[in-house]
């Protein structure tokens, strides 16, 4: 698995692989006993209206190991994305991009497999270092091996910052601006927040 990550990390492209952005997908997963519920939300970029939502339920067949999140969530997440009726231009993940020991977090891994622009948004900085932004709207660059790999962004007053990095086929700055566009009073960008809510709703449905 580590060898596969190292091999795939070479294929990550940090340049914009799109001309026009109309639809954005957000994905997140919830867990219930031995099941994983992955949700994919499709939003119109300009209006931010939800125009599609899908989910997929599968078996958990890999333990939680930091740095290997794709092998726990990736297969099920891909199936949820594949169910979307409209192909998204960019996918935002509740998971890492290039802020990863081998440069290929969940967002990067799936971005390479799909050959699609992806962005990672996480609540904890897994790799790299930065100043912690204190004021709402403030951002600080995340530095790894002397290079800027993303931004820490204070998206909400009473919350810790989020960490935004490109996954694949998008630049560091473009990844930040796409996520910032979808910050609307909450800590997480709307596509990921909506996916989180939807995954939770599906989990609660199966609890009944």
Topology:
Layout: H1 2-9, E1 23-32, E2 35-44, E3 50-59, H2 70-82, E4 90-94, H3 106-114, E5 118-122, E6 139-144, E7 147-153, E8 162-168, H4 172-181, H5 190-207
Parallel strand pairs: 1-4, 4-5
Antiparallel strand pairs: 1-2, 2-3, 5-8, 6-7, 7-8
What report would you give on this structure?
- Helix content is 28%, strand content 29%.
- It has 208 residues and is α+β, with helices and mostly antiparallel strands.
- The protein has a single domain, classed as archaeoglobus fulgidus dsm 4304 fold, CATH 3.30.2170.
- Strands 3-2-1-4-5-8-7-6 form an 8-stranded mixed β-sheet, with helices on both faces.
- The radius of gyration is 16 Å and the shape is globular.
In short:
With 208 residues, the protein is α+β, with helices and mostly antiparallel strands. The protein has a single domain (2-207), classed as archaeoglobus fulgidus dsm 4304 fold (2-Layer Sandwich), CATH 3.30.2170. The chain has helices at residues 2-9, 70-82, 106-114, 172-181, 190-207; strands at 23-32, 35-44, 50-59, 90-94, 118-122, 139-144, 147-153, 162-168.
Radius of gyration: 16 Å
Strand content is 25-35%
Q: What is the rounded distance between the termini?
A: 37 Å
CATH C-level name: Alpha Beta
Write down the domain tally: 1
Poorly predicted ranges = none
Helix vs. strand class: alpha+beta
CATH superfamily: archaeoglobus fulgidus dsm 4304 superfamily
Number of helices: 5
Find the count of extended strands (DSSP E, 2+ residues). 8
- Taken from the alpha-carbon principal axes, the silhouette is globular
String of helices and strands:
HEEEHEHEEEEHH
At CATH level 2, the architecture is 2-Layer Sandwich
What do the pLDDT scores average to? 96
Strand order of the largest sheet: 3-2-1-4-5-8-7-6
User: Looking at CATH, which topology would you report?
Assistant: archaeoglobus fulgidus dsm 4304 fold
Largest sheet: 8 strands, mixed
Helical residue percent?
Answer: 25-40%
């Amino acid at each position: 698995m580590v060898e596969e990550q190292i091999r795939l990390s070479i294929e990550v492209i940090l340049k914009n692989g799109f001309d026009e952005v109309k639809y954005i997908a957000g994905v997140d997963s919830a867990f219930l006993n031995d099941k994983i519920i992955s949700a994919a939300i499709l939003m119109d970029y300009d209006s931010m209206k939800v125009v599609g939502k899908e989910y997929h339920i599968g078996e958990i067949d890999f333990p939680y190991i930091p740095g290997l999140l794709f092998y726990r969530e990736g297969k099920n997440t891909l199936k949820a994305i594949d169910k979307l009726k409209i192909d998204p231009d960019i996918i935002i993940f509740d998971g890492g991009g290039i802020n990863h020991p081998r440069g290929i977090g969940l967002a990067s891994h799936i971005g390479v497999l799909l050959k699609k622009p992806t962005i990672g948004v996480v609540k904890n900085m897994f790799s790299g270092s930065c100043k912690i932004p204190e004021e709402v709207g403030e951002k600080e660059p995340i530095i790894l091996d002397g290079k800027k790999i993303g931004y820490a962004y204070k998206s909400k007053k009473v919350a810790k910052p989020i960490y935004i990095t490109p996954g694949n086929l998008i630049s560091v700055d473009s990844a930040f601006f796409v996520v910032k566009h979808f910050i609307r009073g909450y800590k997480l960008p709307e596509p990921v927040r909506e996916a989180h809510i939807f995954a939770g709703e599906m989990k609660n449905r199966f609890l009944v």
